[in-house]
What we know:
mainly alpha; single chain
Amino acid sequence: MQLTPPTKNAFYASAVLAVLGIVATFVRIPFVSDYAYWFMVLAYVVLFLGNTMKGF
């Protein structure tokens, strides 16, 4: 498997999802707090896809 750097959009989307997941753990955000763990998982999935798929 050849890794490539993620695009800026994939990196920023991953960062936003991760920050939302972290903040939602400490502060009540209506939808996000219920699924904070899954927001973190999704952030890592987006980053993984950005690294493994060219142009993602």
